[in-house]
Amino acid sequence: MAGAVAAAEVWLGGVDVLIHIAGVLQGAAVELDEFPEDIWDTVLDINLRGSFTYVNMSQPS
């Protein structure tokens, strides 16, 4: 991620708009009340942490 942000700063002069479209869903298709909590924690960690990290890396210095 840091490499992509650094490249945008060099090539484009910085990041004006950030669109982060990525995510994962692990496990079989089950009802929400049957979804294993440990897998749910992993999904949230990947999806939310990725967006949070990208936004923080893209802030002006």
What's the layout of helices and strands?
Elements: H1 2-12, H2 37-57
Give an overview in words.
With 61 residues, the chain is mostly helical. It has one domain (2-57). 52% of the residues lie in helices and 0% in strands. The protein has helices spanning 2-12, 37-57. The mean pLDDT is 84.
Task: Describe this structure in a few short sentences.
With 61 residues, the protein is mainly alpha-helical. Helices cover 52% and strands 0% of the residues. The chain has helices at residues 2-12, 37-57.
Low-confidence blocks of residues = none
- Count the E strands: 0
Major sheet: size, sense and barrel closure? none
Distance linking N and C termini: 16 Å
How many domains make up the 3D coordinates? 1
Strand coverage percent: under 5%
Rounded mean pLDDT is 84
CA-based shape: elongated
Compressed to H and E, one letter per element, the order equals HH
Multimeric organization: single chain
How large, in whole angstroms, is the Cα Rg? 16 Å
**Count of helix runs:** 2
Helix content: 40-55%
**Class from helix and strand fractions:** mainly alpha
Main traits of this protein?
2 helices, about 50% helix, about 60 residues
